[in-house]
Design brief:
The structure is a single chain. The protein is an all-beta fold. It has a single domain, classed as Distorted Sandwich (Beta-galactosidase, Chain A, domain 5). A 9-stranded antiparallel β-sheet has the order 7-8-9-10-22-18-17-14-15, with no helix packed on it. Strands 4, 12, 13, 16, 19 and 20 form a 6-stranded antiparallel β-sheet that branches. It is globular and about 55 Å long. The N and C termini lie far apart (43 Å).
């Protein structure tokens, strides 16, 4: 096994380059062939994330706690993986695999012997990311996992911020969900702001935080301005999609999730929590996302 390093790992093709920070296995730079930044910079004055991996929960827990059988544990929003150093398992000029394993510290807050592997691979103008949860224990493991990439808004191609939109693969007529001030899922459903497969981006959409699509039918979206290159985000297996920014910030997060924040007042067992999946002893669960730079 290669020695763990906290140096960013660079991957590239002629059309795209990426850098991954082993702290959280976080995509931290994404540039086109001319070196223009496609990913948010992580400015701590606004939001210090760039594209964190969410594990073993997505969103917040009611009361900051979850119950597994008769035992209660505490976890902060989006879990602990984003703050842990991953080991670099293998790498080439165009691909890398980072791994995080259960240890004494993780077992105190999440009592499963997991292995979380995140593979990044560039091919042409596409960056593929595959996240695999492996169960190294002898009982079933329960988890959620999610992606949280923050793309530049506006993209660096000379178009106005106000001209940017997200186009969906198919119509999305289902109502959307919102969270309260504690980050918990409200029971109400709200009319979708998506019309004719298109979401016109404006800050007012995010005054009440994230937009959650929990009946998503599309398997990809295309983000960008009316002219110039755009970014296609493929999420072939995610049952939830979150869309988020801080109003006025120069990023938009397009977030495919296998999991969702706790509903208001949730007090059930973690294994019954909405969005949580089970991995049998010795088994694994994978989810994928691809970011592709496409010409308009």
């Amino acid at each position: 096994m290669p020695e763990q390093s906290l140096s960013w790992v660079r991957l590239s093709s002629g059309d795209l380059s990426a850098e991954i920070d082993p702290l959280g296995a976080q995509l931290s730079s994404l540039k086109d062939g001319e070196g223009r930044d496609l990913l948010w910079s992580g400015d701590p004055e606004v939001w210090n994330g760039r594209a964190p991996i969410l594990f073993p929960i997505v969103g917040a827990l009611a009361g900051g706690q979850y119950r597994l059988g008769s035992t209660t544990y505490e976890l902060s929003r989006h879990g602990f993986a984003r703050g842990r150093a991953f080991s670099l398992q293998e790498s080439t000029s165009s691909s890398a695999i980072f791994v995080l394993r259960a240890d004494e510290a993780s077992l105190k807050v999440y009592p499963f012997r997991f292995e979380l592997a995140v593979k990044f691979e560039i091919a042409g103008a596409a960056l593929g990311i595959t996240t695999t949860v492996r169960n190294r224990g002898d009982t079933s493991l329960y988890a959620s996992v999610g992606y949280h990439p923050a793309l530049r808004w506006p993209l660096p191609f000379g178009q106005l911020r106000s001209s940017h939109a997200i186009e969906f693969e198919t119509d999305e007529p289902a109502p959307v969900r919102r969270i309260d001030s504690r980050g918990l899922l409200m029971p109400e459903r709200f009319p979708t702001p998506i019309a004719n497969r298109r979401l016109e981006l404006r800050d007012a959409l995010f005054q009440d935080d994230v937009l959650i699509l929990d009946q998503i039918k599309s398997r990809y979206v295309v983000y960008g301005a009316t002219a110039g290159p755009r970014i296609r985000v493929d999420f072939p297996d995610a049952p939830y999609l979150g869309l988020w920014t801080k109003p006025g910030a120069e990023f938009i997060c397009i977030e495919p999730w296998h999991g969702v924040t706790d509903p208001q007042g949730y007090s059930g067992d973690f294994m019954d929590k909405p969005g949580v999946f089970a991995v049998a002893a010795g088994g694994e669960f994978s989810s994928a996302m691809t970011l592709t730079l496409v010409n308009a």
